[in-house]
């Protein structure tokens, strides 16, 4: 029997294989431990997230009930947290770009003003007849019907059909022309409060944004009557836009003016939007159900330093 002696310090293949196997086992154990720790951490984080969401949901529901359905004794002590916090005025002008804007975006404000003061007279100035899909006549009738649901007299609704203000996101509306039209109506109707879109126009529609810049130009140039105030409807991000009443705490904390509808009034606003039958595509039906603009409006005054600072930066 022949035995082969290896020099000292020589490593055999079997010993290398053994060392590799041991290392693999150790690495596998570490990976398994790390995986278990990661799973436990994610499970714990998910549990905490669910608890926080439940608490937030409960807080929203309780706040909503206290604001809209609480008894009179609570209403004395609820301080600023009331269903409607808007200027007390007698004559308000809602300036919109298209038929259905008044229902889709401004319903809580309109119904809130009516509830705050039943004698408040609300005028609607719609700058186009919504003829983008060649349904201008139909949308005109729908606007009258929707305003009737919102308790706005037909005589208080003005619908324009000007060649230079057509419903088209690709057509630039001249700010100067809009400003002249709005100012004319403010002076003729003795308006105390103007409400319209903010600089982002809720949906970033160019026609919506043009109205904001027109009204802002009137404010900046001090052309509005001294007793006339201006509020703009706040645009929010997509997440907040579609969480309905669960945006309530954020709106109350971040806004200085708001209108929150009761569940019955929310159905009232939905009925107004449903009068725009030509616009009830599937995604708008989802909008009616989930959008916070069907139950909450938050508004603020025009802040020239904030609203125009970023425009200057973008154009520089």
Architecture overview:
It contains 13 helices and eight strands. With 316 residues, the protein is of the alpha/beta class. Strands 1-7-8-6-5-2-3-4 form an eight-stranded mixed β-sheet, with helices on both faces. Helix 5 (136-149) links the parallel strand 3 (121-126) and strand 4. Mean pLDDT is 87; it is low at 312-316.
Q: What is the overall silhouette?
A: elongated
Read across the widest sheet, the strand sequence of neighbours is 1-7-8-6-5-2-3-4
How big is the Rg? 30 Å
**Could you give a short account of the major beta sheet?**
8 strands, mixed
- Rounded to the nearest angstrom, the distance between the terminal CA atoms is 92 Å
Helix content: 40-55%
Mean pLDDT rating: 87
Based on secondary structure, the structural category is alpha/beta
Number of strands: 8
Tally the helices.
13
> Could you give the order of the helices and strands?
HHEEHHEHEHEHHEHHEHHEH
Uncertain residue segments: 312-316
Strand content: 5-15%
């Amino acid at each position: 029997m022949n035995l082969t002696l290896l020099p000292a310090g020589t490593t055999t293949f079997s010993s290398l294989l053994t060392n590799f196997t041991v290392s693999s086992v150790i690495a596998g154990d570490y990976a398994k431990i790390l995986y278990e720790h990661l799973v436990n951490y994610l499970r714990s984080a998910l549990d905490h997230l669910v608890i926080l969401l439940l608490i937030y949901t409960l807080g929203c529901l309780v706040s909503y009930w206290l604001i809209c359905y609480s008894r009179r004794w609570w209403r004395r002590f609820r301080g600023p947290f009331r269903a409607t916090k808007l200027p007390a005025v007698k004559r308000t002008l809602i300036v919109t770009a298209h038929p259905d804007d008044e229902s889709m975006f401004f319903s809580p404000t309109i119904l809130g003003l009516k509830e705050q003061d039943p004698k408040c007279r609300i005028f609607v100035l719609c700058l186009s007849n919504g003829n983008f899909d060649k349904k201008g006549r139909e949308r005109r009738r729908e606007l009258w019907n929707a305003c009737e649901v919102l308790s706005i007299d037909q005589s208080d609704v003005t619908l324009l059909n000007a060649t230079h203000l057509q419903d088209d996101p690709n057509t630039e509306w001249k700010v100067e022309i809009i400003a002249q039209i709005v100012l004319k109506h403010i002076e003729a109707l003795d308006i105390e409060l103007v409400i319209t879109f903010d600089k982002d126009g809720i949906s970033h529609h160019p026609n919506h944004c043009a109205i904001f810049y027109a009204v802002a130009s009137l404010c900046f140039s001090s052309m509005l009557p001294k007793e006339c105030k201006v509020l703009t409807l706040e645009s929010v991000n997509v997440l907040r836009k579609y969480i309905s009443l669960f945006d309530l705490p954020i709106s109350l904390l971040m806004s200085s003016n708001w209108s929150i509808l009761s569940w019955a009034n929310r159905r009232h606003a939905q009925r107004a939007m449903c009068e725009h039958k030509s616009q009830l595509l599937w995604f708008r039906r989802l909008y009616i159900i989930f959008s916070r603009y069907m139950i909450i409006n938050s508004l603020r005054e025009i802040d020239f330093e904030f609203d125009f600072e970023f425009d200057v930066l973008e154009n520089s």
